[in-house]
Structure formats: C-alpha cells, structure tokens
Write a structure and sequence with these properties.
With 324 residues, the protein is of the alpha/beta class. It has a single domain, classed as Ribonuclease Z/Hydroxyacylglutathione hydrolase-like (Metallo-beta-lactamase, Chain A), CATH 3.60.15. Helix content is 26%, strand content 27%. It is built from 9 helices and 14 strands. The strands form 2 sheets. A 7-stranded mixed sheet has the order 1-2-3-4-5-6-7. A hairpin with a 2-residue loop joins strand 13 and strand 14. The longest helix has 18 residues. The radius of gyration is 18 Å and the shape is globular.
Length: 324
C-alpha cells in the first residue's frame, strides 16, 4: 500500500518527465525531436519454442527520450552516464522499447501486456502490425494478461475511439492492482499529477464487460503452464508471469527493470517510475536471483529487442544477454 509521501513522490516525478500513465497524451511515447529517431526492429516479432509452447515477442515501438537527472532517483547523473558509457551506450538519451509477448499454447493464445494501440507517439503502436506479420489477427487473441496498470501496458486494450483492440479476449488483471487504481477515494486524494493515471485506467477498464474482466490473485495459475507471481513495488500490484513446458521455463518480468543496462546492472538503483522504490529493489534482486538459480529464460517489456534471453551475474548485479 502506498502512503501519501510515496504518492506525492510519484506525482512530483511527473513534473520532470511527462509519463504516459500520468498524462492522457502519453507524451512519454513521443520522441524528443532533437535526439533523432530510434530504429525500429524489422521484422518486429521474434518467435522461440519453449517445450511445446511458442513464445513470440511483439515490439510495439521505441521512444527516445533525454536522459534526465531524475530518471535514476538515487544515483548521481555522472554515475548513470558512466555505467552507460561502460557498455558503449549513448549517455545523452535513452531508447525505451515496448515489447509484449504472445504465448501460443495448444489452441489458446495469451497476450502479455498490450502496448499503446493508436494512443501513443509516431514510433509506437506497431503491435497489431507485428502480430499480423507473425501470422495472427487481434480476433485470434483468447486472453490478455496485464502485468500492471501503467499506461504503456494497458492503453493498447482500446483504440482512441474506445473500440476494443482484442474484442474476443478475456482480460486478466492482478486483483490488488485493479483495486488500487479503481478506488475512487484514492483517486480523489491523489496529487494532481497522478489523477491522469487514475483517469487513464478508467478509460480502459470502466466499460469492459463484467464477463470479460478476470481478476486474479498474484501467485495464481492463470492457465495450465502459466502462473502469475507477485512482484510488488514498481506498482502496488505488479505481477510477473512464468510459462513452463516440458521442463523449460520462461518468465515475463514486465517492468522489474525499465532499462536493463542500468537497473539490472545496478539493481539497487530506483527508476523514477517505481512507486515504492524499496519494495521494487527487493523484488528486483529476489526475482533476478531466482532467474539465475533456475536458469530460466527471461523477457522484459523494456528490454532491447528481441526482448528475451538470459540473465547472468555481472559485478554486484546482473546483465541481460539477448537471444541471437
């Protein structure tokens, strides 16, 4: 549960960078014009086989933003730039990819998170096209599984005109996450900068038919071989998802780390989007330790494309090694 200080901190953060979940215009998805345009992956999907299951990474786009001093809340900007430089990465901007994952198990199709649809900037909203390139239509999606309610993860459920992007899909959401963001009293008491986040959640979910919305408790099995896992901190109810088939495992870590070159390499750093930074730090270390111990494949919403690979120890933290 977030206290008023944590809510206020999240609200103040929005004055430094316009966040998609705090601003209906989803300005975080817009590129900074003086920094150039990021190159989008072509093709924008990548498939891997996990036992008897297909897992398909679906890129929704990439946004390029200035590296602001506030981006890492508890580290000086010179240390942040030094870590990026040590990995031969730019130090004046960050590229933020948005990649959802489709799990095809038997005749069922599960989409994990949704991207922006047509609610974002010009280099986002590519998920449906990449879904088509992978051989599927929006109507083919049987289930959408939401990790948490930040706008870049949920806005793709609806087009700007309100139409459901995946009209036949049941939408599975973490119960504590839904309860937090749909609480009218909490919305009324929130700092002004956070009211847009609450409003954005209502735009997506308020008219969703009751038989289409499925709340789950983190830790529950969502389908045979697909289990949710509590990963609180980034938001009050964020969940990761583990897919297991024929003795092999894959975990979708959502926003466990926004930029792995920073927050996997230094898990104790806090990104400005973490609503409870200490809980997020503990979750990050716990989950990364488990991934390494169990030799799991991992995928992250903001990992560089193809957004899945392995997690390996590196110094006092970890590094993401993409699949080739």
């Amino acid at each position: 549960m977030l206290n008023r200080r944590q809510l206020l901190g999240a609200g103040l953060a929005s004055t430094a960078i316009a966040l998609p979940w705090l601003n209906p215009g989803v300005l975080w998805a817009q590129n900074a014009p003086n920094l150039g345009t990021p190159d989008l992956p072509t093709p924008g999907f990548r498939k891997m086989r996990l036992g008897a299951v297909d897992i398909i990474a679906l890129n929704d786009g990439i946004a390029r933003r200035p590296l602001a001093a506030e981006f890492v809340k508890n580290a000086p900007i010179d240390q942040v730039k030094a870590l990026l430089a040590s990995q031969n990465l730019p130090t004046d901007y960050i590229d933020v990819p948005f990649t959802a994952f489709l799990v095809v198990s038997g005749n069922q199709r599960f989409l994990m998170d949704t991207g922006f649809a047509d609610n974002g900037g010009p280099t986002t909203g590519r998920l449906v096209a990449n879904l088509a390139a992978a051989g599927y239509k929006p109507e083919d999606i049987d289930h959408v599984i939401i990790s948490h309610y930040h706008g870049d993860h949920i806005n793709g459920l609806r087009m700007k005109n309100g139409q459901l992007t995946f009209p036949k899909a049941k939408v599975h959401v973490p119960a504590p996450e839904h309860a937090f963001w749909m609480d009218d009293a909490r919305m009324a008491a929130a700092p002004e900068g956070m009211k847009g986040a609450f409003g954005g959640v209502r735009r997506v979910f308020k008219d969703l038919p009751a038989d289409q919305l499925v709340r789950f408790e983190p830790g529950a099995e969502l389908a045979p071989g697909i289990r949710s896992n509590a990963a609180f901190g980034h938001t009050p109810g964020m969940s990761t998802f583990t897919v297991t088939s024929e003795g092999k495992s894959f975990i979708f870590v959502a926003d466990l780390t926004n930029i792995p070159s920073l927050f996997a390499r230094n898990p104790d750093w806090a990104v400005m989007f973490d609503m409870d930074a200490e809980a997020a730090r503990q979750t990050r270390r716990r989950v990364f330790d488990q991934i390494v111990k169990d030799k799991m494949l991992a995928g992250g919403y903001h990992f560089p494309f193809p957004a899945f690979g392995t997690i390996e120890p590196a110094g006092q933290g970890f590094q993401f090694v993409p699949m080739t």
